[in-house]
Amino acid sequence: MDKRRALVIGAGPMGLWMARNLVKRGYRVTVYDKKRNKLKKIEGGGISAAKSLKEALSSSSLVVLAVGASNAAALLPSLMSTVSGKIILDISSVKTPVAKALAKHRRSSNMVVLVHPLFGPGTKKLEDKSVVFIPFRKPEEEYRVCTEVFHPCKILRMSVETHDRKMASAMALPRLLILTLLRSWSIDDVKPLTVSQKALMLVASPILSESPSLFKEITEKNPYTEKALINALKTLNQFRNNPSTASKIFKQLQTKKLVKGYAKIYQLLEEAASKTW
């Protein structure tokens, strides 16, 4: 087994990003996906397509799961039972399903590293990016793997529960609110005419370009999404029942830093105008 040989399971955008990232770090990388058509255009640059999952697993020391939380949770039990001495790196954006699948495999000889890169597949520079690291069984060894794979990212250590609670507010809620807003505009036949509307459309663009499976994972598979929605609805009901509440919160949140950000948003809108609207 080659110690600098990695297998990436999942040839989606983030899986391919991980493959390229590992090549830069000196790994020979094989990519496997059950949808064989995804593998046709990935040969070259230190990356090869796996002929079979079994063969690729046997020759790799590092196995990256880039298949989403539900698929990772379904795959992990059999993976933990059939391979040994591997480093298994899960990059899914929701960790509760993965943690439940691993509950019976804490004594496995495989090292499980649970991470969540807080950036997308378009990322080229890592200096200002962050990765969540979730200790599983051997925190120090797992942390070393995380730093090796994602250096120079900032590493944020969290528990499974803390991570998923935060991601419910940071990822699931914004997606659902943006969806609600866009649907409201569509129902009322409101076009994006104002600067604030266009800024929100700009925010919506990367969300709407995600795969439906990723959107579903982030919004439906996180057990804390419902709580985040309930809290948001409480605030909206406050605005409805006592309109002055909105003005008070607005003043509390308004800062010089956010006000200065308007100029940057305006510049981005002007640059994107000819392509977006």
Automatic annotation (TrEMBL):
Pfam families: NAD_binding_2. Residues 4-277 form the Prephenate/arogenate dehydrogenase domain. The keyword Oxidoreductase applies. It comes from Caldiarchaeum subterraneum. One of its GO terms (molecular function) is prephenate dehydrogenase (NADP+) activity. This is Prephenate dehydrogenase. InterPro entries: 6PGDH_NADP-bd, NAD(P)-bd_dom_sf, Preph/Arog_dehydrog, Prephen_DH. GO terms for biological process: tyrosine biosynthetic process. Keywords: Oxidoreductase.
